Amino acid sequence: MNGYPFYNTAAKSPSTIEVQGEGTVTASPDRVLVVLGAITEGDALQLVQAENAMIVTNIIQSLQNLGIPKEKIQTYDFRIDPQYDYEDGKQIFRGYKVTHLLQITTDRVEQTGVIVDTAVSQGANSVSNIQFTLINPEIYENQALSLAVRNARQKAVTIAQTLGATIAAIPFRVQELPRPTGPIPFKAALFADSTVTPIQPGELTITAAVRAWYYIA
C-alpha cells in the first residue's frame, strides 16, 4: 500500500478502491513552556547549593514580578552531582555541580524573550528547552482530519473516473492513521545583548491521515 491509491481488479463483487488521504493545517501557538535555571559548581557543597538556591529564588521572584503566577513555575530538574578529573587512570575529586531547572508555563507567547532575559539577568545560565504549543490542539486536529477525509474521497473519485466507474457516496470503512504528537521544540540561544532576545514562535503544523475504502460500480 505505502500510502498510494490502488484499485481492485480481481473478479470480486463488489469491487473496491482503497485510498489514503492527508490533511494539514497551521496555527499560531498560544502557549509556551520554557525550561531554564541555574547550574553552579564548587568544591564546598554547602556554598554551591546556597549560591544556587539564591539564584533560583531571585529568578522565581523576578518572573512573578512579570505577572507569572507561582503555580506556573515548577521545578523541572534538581540534581547534585560530584565532579571528577582523571589523571593517569586515577579519579580525582574536583567538586560538586548543583543543577536546578524550572519549567515556566505561560499563555503570553509574545513574552518569551522577556522571560528568558529576565531570568538571565538574575543569574540563570541554562536555557535547555522552549516548546511552543496549543491550548486546544483538538480544534486543529479535527480540522486536519476533516481535510484528510476530503482528500481521500477526491483521490477515490479521481481513480473511479479514470476507470469509467463511480464510487459510493460514503466509504464503507475509514481508518484514522497515527499522527505525530506533541509541541515543536525550539532551542534557544543566550545573547549578551541589552535588547530582548528575539525568539520567534512561528507556526505549528498539525497533520492527519486516514485510509478509506470505497465500493465502486
From TrEMBL:
<dbReference type="InterPro" id="IPR007497">
    <property type="entry name" value="SIMPL/DUF541"/>
</dbReference>
<dbReference type="InterPro" id="IPR052022">
    <property type="entry name" value="26kDa_periplasmic_antigen"/>
</dbReference>
<dbReference type="Pfam" id="PF04402">
    <property type="entry name" value="SIMPL"/>
</dbReference>
<protein>
    <submittedName>
        <fullName>SIMPL domain-containing protein</fullName>
    </submittedName>
</protein>
